[in-house]
Amino acid sequence: MKLLVTGGSGFLGSELVRQASDGGWEVAATYRSRPVEGAVPLDVTDADAVEALVARVRPDVVVHTAYVLSGPALWQITADGAAAVARACERHGARLVHLSSDLVFDGRRGGYTEADPPRPVIVYGEAKAAAERLVTAACPGTLVVRTSLLLDSSLGFGPQEARPLAAARGKLDMGFFSDELRSPVSVRDLAAALLEVGPRRDLAGPLHLAGADTIDRHELARLVCLRHGVDPAPLRAAFAADLPELRPLDCSLDSSRAAALLSTRLRGIREVLVA
Ligand SMILES: NC(=O)c1ccc[n+]([C@@H]2O[C@H](COP(=O)([O-])OP(=O)(O)OC[C@H]3O[C@@H](n4cnc5c(N)ncnc54)[C@H](OP(=O)(O)O)[C@@H]3O)[C@@H](O)[C@H]2O)c1
Question: What CATH number is attached to the domain comprising 166?
């Protein structure tokens, strides 16, 4: 089986490439600004380049992780870029697994299932919700995987680890929201689950692949510090509800459908970090 990973230089993409290669997949990967050995450069805003790459690689499965969280090119990269990938997949018969986010929800209720309609309240969530609609329209068999905060790569720290450790060591002035609830997941578990669902063309539409625990960001930061032997006492709690702009407060995801469908277990983050 041949796998193409967009965003192979990213936190999830790099773990996915590592696991897929170890698991015997033939792997192709892309980067944008951080060259990675064996990967090819790709800008998803260049639809012709996306088409040419998929035509050349002829992947069985494409996992589309590439995106940006913010900035002037948010919409072009995160929404239109995803659509370009989906069009190329449809044209060349590749199975598409598209990475989406818990932040497509409004955060008023939490425990969101695949049956809940996206209702984004921040610009990033709007771009990811638009991407979901665009990829599904362009490539109807797409599996849209919604996930949450990513930690625990085998390849090094991501922002969810680096920031609490820096803050606890006095190297970063940052508060951690104690009123924002998420379902963080080990990126190792997520990558394994993505490789399991990749070939499953019977699965289409939204699927939630997030950790089993709901936890606030301050508690998560404390657990990260404890895990790495750093005193969490200096960590400052903050409140998202105090911000002038609206921020979704409870975007916890219900991943029980995935738990019933998959053999890969998506551990709760307490189990991941306290183990
Ligand atoms: N991180 C989280 O906590 C989180 C939470 C929920 C959902 N997700 C979803 O999970 C996915 C992966 O997240 P991540 O944290 O692994 O992301 P990441 O580490 O920020 O990596 C993003 C990737 O996208 C690539 N990229 C950026 N602009 C591009 C462009 N114009 N054309 C092609 N590639 C481009 C980057 O390439 P270069 O670095 O080489 O420029 C990088 O490989 C995303 O779709 C995100 O929405 C993440």
Answer: 3.90.25
Structure tokens at 72: 């002037």
Quick one: pLDDT at residue 203?
Answer: 98
Separation of CA 231 and ligand 1 centre (Å): 30
Are 125 and 158 in the same domain?
A: no
pLDDT along the chain (275 residues), means of 10: 98 98 98 97 98 98 98 98 98 98 97 98 98 98 98 94 98 97 98 98 98 98 97 97 93 98 98 90
Which residue owns the Cα nearest ligand 1 atom 37?
A: 32
Residue nearest ligand 1's atom 24 by CA: 66
User: What confidence score (pLDDT) does residue 47 get?
Assistant: 98
Ligand 1 mutation pick, 4, 5, 12, max ligand atoms within 8 A of CB: 12
How many domains is the chain partitioned into structurally?
A: 2
Which range of residues forms the domain containing residue 75?
2-150+186-208
Q: Name 8's Cβ contacts closer than 8 Å, sequence gap at least 6.
A: 14, 16, 17, 29, 30, 31, 36, 39
* Close Cβ partners of 260 (under 8 Å, ≥ 6 residues apart): none
